[in-house]
């Protein structure tokens, strides 16, 4: 039984440490949307350019998206999911048309953008990004356990938040990993 518990726990520990490693990168990035010099209708050579681009990038709070385009010819609107899917341009959340539009990511969640030009959305000039946890209050130029520890619980949603005022001791991630691994294996054990 004890050995069984240990072997279940190990992969989760690894997974957690991997997450920690991923999240130590907390510098802010400004992404040029699609790595393109112009936000526009995808060319026939790369019809999925925006979908592909967002799939291979990880966005977080503090990052920003830069949309570049000739202001007389295009614009960017942020829309809700339904409008994104149906290409409804009628009730944008945000409208930007200065040709050099910076969207600042200040919250986590799903963000949907398209062109304000009639017809462009249907031609796949639209972008959907997902911003995962990483709490804004924990956001700081330093890297370390605070960011990882406070953002991790939102994945599972069951681990108590540490007091945010005092910086946790260095052993904290290890403790969290053990605790998490343990509770996950108990959970898994309970199901199986
Ligand atoms: C994002 O931040 C930049 C610089 O702080 C600002 O110029 C820009 O207007 C902001 N964008 C939005 C959409 O608020
Ligand atoms: C982020 O932190 C703030 C303040 O500590 C809190 O109100 C908010 O619920 C947190 N959000 C997440 C996603 O943890």
Q: Strand tally, please? A: 7
The hetero compounds bound to this protein are: 2-acetamido-2-deoxy-beta-D-glucopyranose
Helicity range? 25-40%
Number of domains: 2
Shape: elongated
Runs in which pLDDT lies below 50 for 5 or more consecutive residues are 136-159, 166-170
CATH architecture of the largest domain: Sandwich
Give, in order, the helices and strands: HEHEEHEEEEHHH
Please report the distance between the alpha carbons of the first and last residues: 13 Å
Classified by CATH, the class of the largest domain is: Mainly Beta
The proportion of strand residues reads 15-25%
Largest sheet: 4 strands, antiparallel
Counted by DSSP, the helix tally is 6
Spatial order of strands in the largest sheet: 4-3-6-7
What average pLDDT do the residues reach? 76
Compute the CA-based radius of gyration: 21 Å
Question: Could you explain the architecture of this structure?
Answer:
The protein has 192 residues and is of the alpha+beta class. The chain has two domains: 77 residues, no CATH class; 102 residues, Sandwich (Immunoglobulin-like). Helix content is 34%, strand content 17%. The strands form two sheets. It has a four-stranded antiparallel β-sheet. A three-stranded mixed β-sheet has the order 1-2-5, with no helix packed on it. Strand 1, helix 2 and strand 2 form a beta-alpha-beta unit. The longest helix is centred in the first third of the chain and has 22 residues. The chain is elongated, with a radius of gyration of 21 Å. The two termini are 13 Å apart. Pfam families: Cu_bind_like (PF02298). InterPro entries: Cupredoxin, ENL_dom, Phytocyanin-like, Phytocyanin_dom. It is a lipid-anchor; GPI-anchor.
